[in-house]
């Protein structure tokens, strides 16, 4: 929930008093349902799936292999979902990978694309325009309105990417078209206790 306060009309203290937060009963919240999780997602880095990985490597004086190793070794906290349903803004990007957004945004970024913009990494759940530096793509459909839950993650969860090759990417794509697709074969969910 985001609350905008026009301080020309009310003071922050007046708004807080009006909210009457002391009456909020958090005893009914099921703490077990609030457990955060880490989602391990497969990504094919570079090539046609990550067309900006060379630019990220050059900008940071790294090889593309080093970009993949650094990017896939970190766990990223989902600060929030925004821009579009299921787009995670991920914190915790290694400073060695910080790269500015593209000067010219693309009109079409493929669904599943993983990108870098400044000090964050993110994941495009659906095809859209965008200006992030695309370094890879996951074949996993992370947001599906016909699935419950629709999104594999939520704010407060973490995502960790792992590198796959093109054959594995195509295998996962093919398996997802089948009614009996077992997402847990490719996506690991670790729950915090």
Spatial sequence of strands, sheet with the most strands: 1-8-5-6-3-2-9
Which H/E pattern describes the elements?
HEHHEEEEEEEEHE
Q: Write down the overall mean pLDDT.
A: 90
User: How big is the Rg?
Assistant: 19 Å
Q: How does the helix and strand content classify structurally?
A: alpha+beta
State the low-pLDDT regions, or none: none
Cα distance, first to last residue? 26 Å
Fraction in helix: 10-25%
What brief labels describe this structure?
single chain; 193 residues; alpha+beta; 7-stranded mixed β-barrel; two-stranded antiparallel sheet; 10 strands; globular
What does this entry look like structurally?
The chain has 193 residues and is of the alpha+beta class. It is built from four helices and ten strands; from the N terminus they run αβααββββββββαβ. The protein has helices at residues 12-19, 53-59, 64-73, 166-176, and strands at 37-45, 75-81, 88-91, 106-109, 113-117, 120-123, 128-130, 133-137, 158-163, 188-191. The chain has a seven-stranded mixed barrel with strand order 1-8-5-6-3-2-9. The longest helix is centred in the last third of the chain and has 11 residues, at 166-176. It is globular. The mean pLDDT is 90.
């Amino acid at each position: 929930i985001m609350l905008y306060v026009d301080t020309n009309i009310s003071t922050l203290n007046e708004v807080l008093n009006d909210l009457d937060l002391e009456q909020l009963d958090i005893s009914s919240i099921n703490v077990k349902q609030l457990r955060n999780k880490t989602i391990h997602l497969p990504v094919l880095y570079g090539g046609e799936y990550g067309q900006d990985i060379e630019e990220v490597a050059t900008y940071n004086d790294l090889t593309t292999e080093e970009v993949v190793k650094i990017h896939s070794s970190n766990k990223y906290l989902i600060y929030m979902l925004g821009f579009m349903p299921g787009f995670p803004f991920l914190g915790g990007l290694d400073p060695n990978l910080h790269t500015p957004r593209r000067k010219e945004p693309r009109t079409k970024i493929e669904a599943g694309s993983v990108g870098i913009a400044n000090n964050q990494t993110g994941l495009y759940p659906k095809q859209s325009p965008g200006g992030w530096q695309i370094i890879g793509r996951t074949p996993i459909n992370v947001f599906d309105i016909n699935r419950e839950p629709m999104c594999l993650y939520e704010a407060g969860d973490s995502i960790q990417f792992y590198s796959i090759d093109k054959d594995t990417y195509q295998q996962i794509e093919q398996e997802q078209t089948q009614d009996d697709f077992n997402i847990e074969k490719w996506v690991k969910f670790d729950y915090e206790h």
